[in-house]
Amino acid sequence: MFKLTIFSVFITSILAGCGGSSKNPTPPNQAPGSVKITAVVATDSSGNVSFTASATNAVSYDFDFGNGVIQTIPSGVTTYKYTSSGTYTINVIAKSASGLTSSANIQITVVVKMNLVWSDEFNTPGSPDPTKWTYDLGAGGWGNNELEYYTSRTDNAIVSNGTLKIIAKKESYSGSNYTSARLKTQGLYAFKYGRIDVSAKLPASIGTWPAIWMLGNNISTVGWPACGEIDIMEQNGNNKNIVYGTLHYPQQVNQYGDGATTSVANVSTTFHKYSAIWSPATIQLLVDDVVYYTLPNNSNFPFNQNFFIILNVAMGGTLGGTVDSNFTTDQMEIDYVRIYQ
Questions:
Q1: Is 234 a known active-site residue?
Q2: pLDDT, tens only, 190-248
Q3: Which tens digits make up the pLDDT trace of 249-287?
């Protein structure tokens, strides 16, 4: 019995040794096999999605979550939180130890519940609501060689028939040849993260420069661009169907900010929805719910603090260009401003 036990152990050792020596090691240049991806979308409208990716010979996985965010997940298992509803195409690249790759993608639909936390529907005629809006006043070019004098008169900013009109006029006023208005929520309301939607019709006149944008609440202490700037919409002064979405911050790659342009039809005759979806991970810029630019956010950027809202129509300047000599008046008309979190 004792000898049999020794023999069994001896045979087991030999078999174990033979098994180890006869096993073919994975070639160092072996590419990953077919990538398999599963996704489980949370049913509580939280935006959480659990992903699992697997492939033979893979040692790491790059996940593109379909919203501009790319993360390397060595295990292939992760939970990602989407901040807005939508249909997303997720692409996963599996990598071998030698750097060879294999990829696959899936499509998911995510529903995220967001609550309306602040809005102005512009239903009360007269001056804009003073509990929600204040003004920048004066001339001086505003850092962009602009030509207008901003006032707080109802000649330049008035609520009527359910919309806000920001009106630019050609008139002699305190040394300027044009007047307009620049409304802001500074000192009255600011927020961090969420979604902002602004429904607006834009001016058609050459040389007008309307904007829907936000600045960091700490601008008075740190200055610009350290405070950060989120330009949700700026309209080209000459090509009126082109709108810009731009992010300004100290680390920006491009001289004039990081962003993109998009073409919008009937921009001056139809209300369009201009939006930003802002989270610790990304800032997305949209027109009519279509994302056309995404900036990955991180803790080193100034986009992790409270921002306030600005609505204005400038005349001329760096983006407005030369004003039409026949210009008399034009306006940006805003149906609503809504913020969700």
A1: yes
A2: 999 999 999 999 999 999 999 999 999 999 999 999 999 999 999 999 999 999 999 99
A3: 999 999 999 999 999 999 999 999 999 999 888 999 999
Antiparallel, parallel or unpaired: β 208-216 and 307-315: antiparallel
Catalytic residue among 121, 146, 148, 234: 234
Q: Active-site residue 146, yes or no?
A: no
Question: Among the options 146, 148, 229, 333, which is catalytic?
Answer: 229
pTM, rounded to two decimals:
0.78
